[in-house]
């Protein structure tokens, strides 16, 4: 019996444009063999850097392309966060970012997340306590792990607070393209006229996870300093991967790949909603309008760590909410790597695991 995993935020092979990537790889080596195979520069593969700058309407000097967005995070934290520095994070937030900040010795300040993004009132309370954060880490679209999206009003409020309290907003936005419904909300980067935002995104969620290409966009002076860190870290990032992404993007295959991912993930998200409502009606969740994840709150008294064990006995995996700073009765379901049929079976088994803990469906 194969394990049904709701644990990993990665698309399954059936929705990756393998043929398009093969074609882009061929074009990369045919059209620019020298640039594709050379060390290159620490700012990344120049044509891709130019394409990203054009997408965001910024000067090319404001862009740095990295080996995945986690590398971009690490560079930014190395530049801005010293031991003891206060950093605002959403509660819950992405566990790897949390780990990275804690390893740097940051004074991590959790601010509760609401259905429409970080609580501005709670943030103001923290800022009023004489806390002077260096950085606020925000995942604005289809947040990992919660799946929530930051409203336009809160984006404006955050920008105002960043200016007032002299901190940088790290707009960590790898899921921005995976919107199922509704209109895109302008990025904080696009509204920043005070040099307060550093933006990161990734091609892992749209092209494929194995491509490991991410990027930063920010004030030119900040990017220049991060370029120095990048040079000392690896001379240059992976030119082959970045050249392939460049060809993939410029050939028009990127748009089709994103549509395929969106169509399939919406069907998978809908399958989770249907199965949860049927099998675990007492579960509370917000229906995400995009992305890879859903945050589920179970009744008070349910221990997700115990449920994790019971689910594992039934060949089902998920990540408990406490790993992200959440409450003991919460969990994250990633629906990106499982088919609707697997989702239906998996949620049914999860309900059975819940009943085995003495929690019956109401």
UniProtKB/TrEMBL annotation:
Gene3D superfamilies xref list: Aspartate Aminotransferase, domain 1, Type I PLP-dependent aspartate aminotransferase-like (Major domain)
Matches recorded under InterPro entries: Aminotransferase_I/II_large, Class-I_PLP-dep_aminotransf, PyrdxlP-dep_Trfase, PyrdxlP-dep_Trfase_major, PyrdxlP-dep_Trfase_small
Pfam families xrefs: Aminotran_1_2
Keywords assigned: Aminotransferase, DNA-binding, Pyridoxal phosphate, Transferase
Stretches assigned to the Aminotransferase class I/classII large domain: 18-350
Cofactor needs: pyridoxal 5'-phosphate
GO molecular function terms listed in the Swiss-Prot or TrEMBL record: DNA binding; pyridoxal phosphate binding; transaminase activity
GO BP: any one term: alpha-amino acid metabolic process
Keyword Transferase: yes
Protein name: DNA-binding transcriptional MocR family regulator
Organism this protein belongs to: Solirubrobacter pauli
Taxonomic placement: Bacteria, Bacillati, Actinomycetota, Thermoleophilia, Solirubrobacterales
């Amino acid at each position: 019996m194969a394990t049904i995993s709701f644990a990993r935020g990665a698309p399954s092979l059936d929705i990756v444009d393998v043929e398009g990537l093969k074609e882009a790889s061929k074009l990369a080596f045919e059209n620019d063999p020298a640039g594709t195979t050379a060390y290159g520069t620490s700012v990344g593969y120049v044509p891709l850097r130019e394409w990203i700058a054009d997408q965001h309407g910024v000067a090319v000097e404001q862009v740095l392309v990295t080996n995945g967005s986690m590398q971009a995070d690490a560079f930014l934290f190395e530049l801005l966060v010293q031991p003891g520095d206060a950093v605002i994070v959403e509660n819950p937030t992405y566990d790897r970012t949390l780990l990275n900040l804690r390893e740097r010795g940051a004074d991590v300040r959790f601010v509760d997340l609401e259905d429409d993004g970080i609580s501005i009132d709670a943030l103001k309370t923290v800022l009023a306590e004489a806390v002077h954060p260096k950085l606020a880490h925000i995942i604005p679209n289809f947040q990992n792990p919660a799946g929530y999206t930051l409203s336009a009003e809160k984006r404006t409020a955050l920008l105002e607070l960043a200016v007032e309290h002299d901190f940088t907003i790290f707009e960590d936005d790898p899921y921005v393209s995976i919107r199922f419904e509704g209109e895109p909300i302008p990025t904080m980067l696009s509204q920043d006229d005070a040099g307060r935002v550093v933006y990161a995104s990734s091609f892992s969620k749209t092209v494929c996870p194995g491509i490991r290409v991410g990027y930063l966009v920010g004030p030119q002076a900040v990017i220049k300093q991060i370029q120095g860190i990048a040079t000392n870290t690896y001379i240059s990032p992976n030119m082959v991967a970045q050249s392939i992404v460049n060809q993939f993007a410029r050939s028009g295959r990127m748009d089709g790949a994103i549509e395929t991912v969106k169509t399939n993930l919406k069907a998978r998200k809908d399958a989770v909603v249907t199965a949860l409502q049927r099998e675990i009606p007492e579960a509370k969740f917000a229906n995400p309008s995009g992305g890879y994840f859903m945050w589920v709150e179970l009744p008070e008294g349910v221990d997700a760590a115990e449920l994790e064990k019971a689910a594992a006995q039934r060949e089902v995996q998920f990540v408990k909410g406490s790993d992200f700073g959440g409450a003991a009765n919460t969990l994250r379901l990633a629906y990106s790597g499982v088919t609707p049929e697997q989702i239906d079976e998996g949620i049914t088994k999860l309900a059975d695991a819940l009943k085995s803990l003495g929690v019956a469906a109401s």
